[in-house]
Design brief:
The protein has helices at about 5, 20-25, and strands at about 10, 15, 35-40, 50-55, 60-65. By secondary structure, the protein is of the alpha+beta class. A hairpin with a 4-residue loop joins strand 4 (about 50-55) and strand 5. It starts with a helix and ends in a 14-residue tail after the last strand.
């Protein structure tokens, strides 16, 4: 459900996905795919799983590190 974004506008029309909303808020070319996080999935003691975010829906899941997904480089602090 993307109800929280339907009240926002995306270039004059309603935002229907998280990626549309992000692309109107200063981010450029955010894909509706999957992006890795740097956080290990604690339930996997081998540390071969990490968390990822499915940007189209905004949901978070865990998957093995061997799968190819997008990355979003960030830097900490000022």
């Amino acid at each position: 459900d993307h109800a929280e974004y339907t009240r926002e506008t995306c270039g004059g029309s309603a935002c229907t996905t998280n990626t549309m909303w992000l692309n109107t808020r200063g981010f450029i070319n955010v894909q509706a795919g999957v992006y890795w996080s740097s956080s290990t999935y604690a339930a996997d003691t081998s540390s071969s799983y990490v968390w990822y975010v499915y940007m189209l829906e905004g949901h978070v899941y865990a998957n093995p590190k061997t799968i190819y997904f997008y990355v979003w480089p960030v830097r900490g602090g000022q």
